[in-house]
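Tutorial sheet, problem 5. The two components below are modelled jointly, 582 residues in total.
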Amino acid sequence: MNILQVEGLTVRFGGLVAVNDLSFSVRTGEVFAMMGPNGAGKTTAFDAIGGFVQAAAGAVRFEGKPILGLAPERIAALGIRRTFQNNGILREMTVLENVLTGLELSTPSSLLGVVTGWPAAARAERSAVVRAREMLEQMEIGDLEERAAGDLSFGQQRMVEIARALVAGARLIMLDEPAVGLSPNERLHLGQVLRRLAGTGITVLLVEHVQDLVMAVSDQVLVLNFGRKLVQCPPEEVRQNEEVLEAYLGNG
Amino acid sequence: MTLSTTRPGARERDPAAAARRRALIVLLALLCLLPLAVNNYVQFVVNTMLVYCLVAVGFNVVLGYLGQLAFANAAFFGIGAYAAGLSMVHWGVSGPVGIALGGAAGAVLGFVVGLPALRVKGYYLAIATLAVGELMRWVYVHNDAITFGPGGFSLPELRLLGMTLDETLKYYVFLFVVTLAIAATSLLLRSRFGRAFVAIRNNERAAASLGIDGRRMKILAFVWSGMIVGLGGALFALLNGRVSPDTFGLSQLLMHFAIVMVGGLGSLAGSVIGAVLLTAAPEVFRNLPGLEEIVFSLMLILVIFFMPKGVGGLLSDAFPLLRERLYRRP
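Model answer (structure tokens):
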């Protein structure tokens, strides 16, 4: 069953066609990676799916529902979360507060309840804290709870971002170059986390430059060049693909 | 996680939280006894401090927590004072109703000022909101029939439960309003709403990706800020017994800004400390003409250079227990 279906997605910036007639579908519970040289349109495709840039044409369906044109917070409400290429961390907030922010939509405390200290609202707020702490434990970063997120290493920040994306029970998470700036060890850990997620039925859509990570964790790889889909196949076949070798790895 | 965390009373077992709670109760008790120890003049100064506590706390919500360069604070303050004062003069409402109307008027103006903040930010928002302050002053000056024009107006003699509202009685009214307002603001900031404000300040795109509706949250912050500062304005009208348009200009705004900066952006305790310090400073140096301004400017410069996070930031760095969190401990 396909959790995400993209059909004919096209994004233009002025005269530039950043994403050109892109179609693919992602099956539930798989790790789906998008690769491609710089400027191939990977992040733009991400942004269009998440509602951060406007698409010129195409359709995107999440669990069968059309989502193209919805505001980012509406798309988030449907069960899609993402991380950002250049750090979507909330730097001045602590790790726990970052993850709590991920629970915005699943904390049913009303404004009136909150400011009057109404027990139901207080309960909702407190159980959010408990839930966020559980998530931190699951991601093995419980000891960082009180640290300001901006002070952490890149790798730790990535884990916080992923924890924050997962805490509200998202069914699709989209990670934009999560391995950038990570040490080999941290990459390995990230790969394990991604496989574990897929194992629990959470679908992972990945944009990534780091090839060893993509090859190790992906079920499907889609290669983009100049906004167009070059090929989509399992990772082991990517290495043999002539077009990909030429476009992505250069004329070797 | 243990199941006991959900049991009522479990919170008390966190020794730090219990200590903080006890300290707050002692502080409130001392504040209630304060009138026994001070004369009328000091009482007036303390009442002024209470007014500026609201001013700073309200301003901080938008400037510190939401992180928007919005400078309509003197306008919120002014409309609170005018709404309270005029409703008492024209409609003969009682003090408490006047105070509530001041808060309501501030909230309405907060909503109006919040609208441009959905489209512009940074310097553009600063200029747009500064203009609101000047526009409001123009309104007060040019509507003599309602606002009594440039000269302003005096409030009728205030009575509460049959007693004349002297400085001491005012103090208790103010203390009640300020305590409630700060408690509610603190609860707001330690909830998903406060976290949304700070998330928007840190990274608006990331906030949206988490399902935070930036437009609603910004409007909420502005309305709340307007309401709290409007309440402060209403108390200010009661404090002086007079309201006039020239009080709510740029120098008023500068005072508000200085208090929040000295106290620390994003710190409620800091806002209270800032209000106390900057209200007290001019009074302490009142008898030394010229020194008042020098001390005021010096304090600002020192803070900007040596403690960019203000007194509140300094305190929370020194005493981790005092760090203000954006959630309530379970």
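Marking note: Strands of chain A lie at 2-13, 16-27, 31-35, 57-62, 65-66, 80-82, 172-176, 203-207, 220-225, 228-233. Full credit if you identified this.
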